[in-house]
Each structure stands twice: as C-alpha cells, then as structure tokens.
Write a structure and sequence with these properties.
Radius of gyration: 21 Å
Number of domains: 3
Distance between the termini: 40 Å
Largest sheet: 5 strands, parallel
Helix content: 55-70%
CATH topology of the largest domain: Rossmann fold
Order of helices and strands: EHEHEHEHEHEHHEHHHHHHHH
Shape: globular
Number of helices: 15
Number of strands: 7
Structural class: alpha/beta
C-alpha cells in the first residue's frame, strides 16, 4: 500500500500520519520494530530500497515513512523510483507513506524531473492533498477542536482567536488547548482570548528560531521558556524548529556549491529577505551540524508522539549544546 500526503496545511497531514502510525502500532506492531521514519531530502535511491526492503524477525509487514522527498536534488531518485514503486504497489506487502509539504501549486510548481513521480503518487487510492483551509473551514475546524475539550466559544472570541492565529493550525490548536484548560466555564469568552494574547507569542517564535540559528544560547533559552509559559505545545515548537533548520541546511548546501543569493532564492522558492537572513545564520553551521540538529529534533518529535520522554527537558538540553 502506498499513501501520499502532501499540501500547504502541514498540521492536518501530520495529524493523519500520526493516526496511521498509531493504528499500525496498535494493530500490527506494538513494539514499533517495523516502523521507520526517515528524511527523504537527504537520501538516495539505494538507501530508500534498502530501508523499505529491510525485514523484521517478528513482524512481516513494515510501515515506512519518507518525508520531504520532493526536496531531494538527486535526479536518479526521480528517474528510478516510479518504476520501483509500481512493482512495490503490486506486491502490497508493506505500507509506504510519502509525506511532503506544498507541491504542484503556484507557490511550489513541479520541476520537470518530479512530474512522473508526483503523477504516480497522486493517483494512488490513498493520496490526499491538504490545502490551506478557507475562513469557513477554519471556523468549523476550530469549533470541532474545541468540542474535543467539551468547550464552545463566543462568536466574537472565535473571530479574535482566528485573527490572531491566522491560518496556522499548529498555533491555533495550541491556543485552543490553552484556552480550554484555562476556562472553567463551557463557553470561552473574548476577555479570556484577550487575556492570553496569543499573537504576542506567535511573533516571538520567530525570535526563538533566530536566536538558535545564531547560537545565542541565553536568548534562546529565555524565549523557549516564554513559549512554554504561553502554553505552546512541544509539537508546535518542534515543527517550527525543524522547518527552520531544514531551510538553513538547504541554504548551507547551496552556499557550499557556490550558488549566489538570487539563485538560492529561486531554487528554494524563498523570499530574497529570508535567503539573506538565512545566509548569515547558516554561516554558524556546517552541513553535518545542521543534519545532526535536524535528526535530533526529529527524534524528539518521534518520542513526543509516542509519549516516551520529557521533550521539554531534552529541547532545553539540545539548545545548550549549540
């Protein structure tokens, strides 16, 4: 079985992926011995085949997740993977999930070498695109999320909450959880939304990633404390940090190939200002260091989703090692 999850809305795709992994662990592999998640951006065709084909003595079926494959720059992967996957789909023994962000859109058009693989994956029965929710869908999403906490929200309060969090579902769900736990009544008021003031902390999260990128440990620890005190979740913070370090890795790799700022912006589909800021930050890291931090953050994300460790303590420790 091949599953393809992609789109600009990374929160809903990530949530569905977690539900699929939980079901596999619950129904097939309680020990998670045959569950593997790896970064497709920094792999090659042989490595993909080796990881998919590796077996377990105790569980015949494997659950393999490949994230961000379409950010890979190796032509061989896109040339050879479609034919390989067609054979794999016919066998149907394993579950293979491809998880990517925005693809085949105005903001992220497909490159010529990517089209065959994208068309194959998007035609799979379990392919799903997660587009950014419109205002009506966002309202419905927020109300359903609140209902899981047995809470409702006043219309004016909901409007303010959505205005402060925008279309960022990572931040929205974090704020909903904070409001739900802080409100003793069934209905959340606009006064409580104003009191907790989520917009301040939405801005500060970018200050945190900047402080980490420039190795300002003291400021990074201070800002991370503020994020936790504001009620932001481990999951949201990890997603933001992984995104930042992945961007820095792409910029660092481009710089090592003597690619100029304008070409980097075009190649990575980034705003020139983001590239300019990223170049100064990437200067503080080598490619290997960035890969190390990404792997550490992905590991923290993994243990967080499996509730196997104190992610907050581990995250503070990671920052202290910068």
């Amino acid at each position: 079985m091949i599953i393809f999850l992609y789109g600009a809305d990374t929160f809903r795709s990530r949530r569905l992926l977690q539900q699929l992994k939980d079901k596999f662990i619950r129904d097939v592999d309680p020990g998670s011995a045959s569950l593997l998640v790896f970064d497709g951006q920094n792999t090659n065709f042989k490595d993909i085949g080796d990881k998919i084909g590796a077996g377990s003595l105790f569980v015949k079926k494997r659950f393999v997740v490949i994230e961000n494959l379409f950010k890979n720059t190796q032509d061989k992967i896109f040339k050879e993977l479609p034919a390989y996957l067609k054979k794999l789909a016919a066998a149907g023994d394993n579950i293979l999930v491809f998880k990517d962000e925005d693809l085949n859109s105005k903001e992220r058009p497909l490159k010529a070498r990517e089209k065959e693989l994208f068309l194959f994956l998007s035609k799979q029965p379990y392919s799903q695109e997660f587009k950014t929710l419109n205002n009506q869908q966002l309202t419905s999403f927020a109300q359903k999320e609140l209902a899981t906490y047995q809470k409702k929200i006043a219309p004016t309060a909901l409007n303010l909450l959505l205005e402060n969090t925008g279309h960022d579902l990572w931040l929205l769900t974090s704020e909903i959880r904070k409001l739900a736990y802080s409100c003793p009544k069934e209905i959340i008021s606009i006064d409580l939304v104003r009191q907790l003031n989520p917009i301040t902390y939405e801005k500060n999260i970018f200050g945190l990633t900047d402080a980490i990128s420039t190795k300002n440990k003291t400021l990074a620890v201070k800002l991370l404390n503020e994020q936790y005190n504001a009620g932001l979740s481990d999951e949201y913070l990890l997603s933001m940090l992984v995104r930042q370090f992945r961007t820095l890795l792409q910029i660092r790799q481009s710089l090592d190939q003597n690619i100029g700022p304008a070409q980097i912006a075009k190649k990575l589909n980034l705003h020139p200002f983001v590239v300019k800021k990223g170049i100064s930050q990437a200067a503080n890291f080598s490619v290997n260091h960035l890969r190390h931090y990404i792997n550490q953050l992905l590991y923290l994300d993994f243990i967080n989703k499996k509730s196997q460790g104190d992610v907050q303590t581990e995250l503070f420790w990671l920052i202290s090692q910068l």
